[in-house]
Amino acid sequence: MSAVKKRKISQEHLGEASAPSTEVEQTSKTFKELGIIDQLCEACENMGYKSPTPIQAQAIPLAIDGRDVIGLAETGSGKTAAFVLPTLQALMETPQPFFGLFLAPTRELAYQIAQATETLGSTIGVRCVVLVGGMDMVAQSIALGKKPHIVVATPGRLLDHLENTKGFSLRNLKYLAIDEADRLLDMDFGDSLDKILKVLPRQRHTYLFSATMSSKVESLQRASLSNPLRVSVSSKYQTVSTLQSSYLCIPHKHKNLYLVYLLNEFAGQSSIIFTTTVHETQRVAFMLRALGFGAIPLHGQLSQSARLGALNKFRSRSRDILVATDVAARGLDIPSVDVVLNFDLPMDSKTYIHRVGRTARAGKSGVAISFVTQYDVEVWMRIEWALGKKLKEHAVEKDEVMVLAERVAEAQRQAIIEMKSFDEKKGIRGKKFGKGKRSRDDMDQEDG
Fold it and tell me: E strands of 83-241, at which residues?
């Protein structure tokens, strides 16, 4: 296969919004000028898409021309519409069942892609089905029997249906899009992807989208794409210019105090608090609830309906604080997040990029603050080195923080009591379900 041809937007074209060339380049383009038909342009308007994002402006014309595309862009850059719109446009020309397949690493992202597909395709009557673990396979089989145009799936559950659902086949598939490809491969979906690719027709259009280009993604590209063009609108480690990133250097024993102080400082704004474990996610949520905050946990050990419920409550602002493991770090489109707090630092800079990418999306501003304790200095230095810049320290009044000590200590005691009950229930479930090798059904959720 010939070498991948590259088209890149230089860093200066992505930096300051004040640069006149950027303004002309981005505002002069419309979806119609990219080649999108009127019905889909109308759907874009209905969704509030005023003009194409850089990745859309680069990828869509190539896709409409029939080329395979590798799209690299930071999270929140509009990658979903970049592969959904060309697929729907092609579907209009030659309508057929099982026309397109969109693969995603997590259940939430699969539902999100399906929602975007149905909304963008509402003007042309697109039928879509979602195949993810944790949901009833029989109901999904019935939905497949209705011959949808687009299948959105996680690899494990898709493979289960390909092997077990009578009459279901993708041998006539025309379009394949793989979203968050690097994350898919990090979650051990490599074998499932290989099996899926073997049963798909060779004559198809393929789009591969990712925030980073790892060696695993390179090998997937070679296996699944034909003479692709690569479009890149970000460096490997880049945060958007509208994001205000900073850190707090604090003693580990005072993390809870500083967390409550910051939440009071940003009262009324929507916040995501990232932790590294399921246990810590639950503990922090219990503690904040005891203090009167509207906090809701999100992690991989919740049932699928509970996870969707948590997301919906947060999106609708009936809860304004989401306490989450990295299950919420990638791909989720929660447009109104104002603040991201890294209560526990991620162990690598790639995860940091995705976490802080939950805010400052679609041109809006946002705040990200990371807690750096005496145990985290080395990790934080690695993150700053990867970002290529030293971030500023967030200013706080220590005396005002310490005033909260008594109230927070009492809330922490209540949280410990609730955690004992939570751990007992989890232990019972663990004995019932925790034996054996991880099934395909479990692969599309993250265990935090």
Answer: 100-103, 128-131, 150-153, 175-178, 205-210, 229-232
Exposure on the CB side of residue 60, measured as CA atoms within 13 A? 28
What confidence category does residue 257 fall into, taking pLDDT thresholds of 50, 70 and 90? very high
Do the beta carbons of residue 76 and residue 361 sit within 8 Å?
yes
How many C-beta atoms lie closer than 10 Å to residue 239's C-beta? Answer: 23
Inside any domain, residue 328: yes
Q: How far apart are CA 288 and CA 262, in angstroms?
A: 12
> Beta partners for 322?
272, 296
183, 265: one domain = no
pLDDT in tens, 21-68: 222 234 348 999 999 999 999 999 888 888 898 899 999 999 999 999
**Which structural domain, as residue segments, surrounds residue 205?**
5-232
SS3 assignment, position 347: coil
Per residue in 263-291, pLDDT (tens digit) is 999 998 999 999 999 899 999 999 999 99
Residues 102 and 251 in one domain: no
Quote the percentage of the chain above a pLDDT of 70.
83
Tokens of 417: 């009591």
Rounded Cα distance, 448 and 443, in Å: 12
- Count of H helices and E strands in the chain? 18, 15
For residue 248, the surrounding DSSP H or E stretch is strand 243-249
User: Does 39 share its domain with 172?
Assistant: yes
User: Are 137 and 157 part of one and the same domain?
Assistant: yes
Q: How far is CA 262 from the centre of its chain?
A: 25
Reported pTM:
0.65
